[in-house]
Amino acid sequence: MLSTLLSLLSPTQRYRKVLSFSLTAGSVHALAISIDGAILAAGGTHGIQLRNIETRKEISITTHLESRGIVSSAIWIKTKYALGETLCYGTALGYVVFVQLSPVEKQKYYQEICARRLGAGLEVTCFAWDPSSSESSHIAVGTRDHAVQVLSLSSGSQLQSMFAGCIDNTVPKVLCFADRSLYVFGLYDGKVIKLSIKDGTIMSENRCRSVIGSAAVYLKKGVFVIDNATDGFTLYHLDGADPIRMFVTDPLCIPVPKQVAFGEGSKVVIGGGSNGSVFVFARRTGRPLATLQHTRGALVQTIGVSA
Predict the structure, then answer these.
(1) Which InterPro entries does the UniProt entry name for this protein (predicted)?
(2) Which residues are CB-contacts of 75 (< 8 A; sequence separation ≥ 6)?
(3) Domain range for residue 288?
(4) Digit-coded pLDDT (tens) for 70-127
(5) Torsion angle defined by CA atoms of residues 102, 103, 104 and 109, in that order, rounded to the nearest 10 degrees
(6) Which of 11, 74, 110, 116 fits as disulfide partner to 89, beta carbons 3.0 to 4.6 Å?
(7) 150 burial class (0-12, 13-18, 19+ CB within 10 angstroms)?
(8) What is d(CA 209, CA 261) in angstroms, rounded to the nearest whole number?
(9) How far apart are CA 147 and CA 165, in angstroms?
(10) Does 249 reside within a domain?
């Protein structure tokens, strides 16, 4: 499958293609752009692949992929004790893997520093990173068996569990840290659940008017946007159940989840489509700004956005 990266230009030509490459095999299930915007991580049936966005060259990575399953989720984090950013990715067999740039001078490759299989070994569905936590080391993980965990990565590359629990009948699709709490967005039931990060107790619960194919959160404005898996994307308040605004695309023949994200400092909403397109909307008005053609007719399920 072809992966394409687009960058911001002037209002008259808002985006242009800067990088396009084909993976060796299979489909892409996770895309993550590093915090500094320099590296694209692409994960899926092929494992995990890193690309330098400026030079367009692949970056070597040493990790044990063969027995850990398809890469299902990925996130970049930056702890206070690490020299550079750390890539964390999860797999369909429940593994959480951390890789960092090699400390050996002049050897520009990423190496595995830590890996653990969580719980019953079911799919890792989502991650969230808390940059305000102690040493910026707290990571939340959601898995297919309704479980949510908060882990801490130590300076010695050891994982410690802060809390772990299950949410009845809710498969976590997206997680977000906020004010000593953790928001959990449920895939099939459309629930938005707020948990205490101290012990995992439920602080509040709301339900969207549709399933949640994916979600993105804009904490400054207290809003989130979801893929409603039917005719587009819907904007909500974090503490309310009524929609604020719709971002309408062509209705899907078969309801399938697609990723959605905020971009340009949360001024725009970006989401995938069923006809090979990526849609860009103005967040405040819902007005379509651009339709980016990624492929011809194929479903665009996976997107990654740099802050």
Answers:
(1) WD40/YVTN_repeat-like_dom_sf (IPR015943), WD40_repeat_dom_sf (IPR036322)
(2) 32, 87, 88, 89, 127, 128, 129, 139
(3) 209-307
(4) 999 999 999 988 888 999 999 999 999 999 988 776 568 899 999 999 999 999 999 9
(5) 20
(6) 74
(7) buried
(8) 19
(9) 6
(10) yes
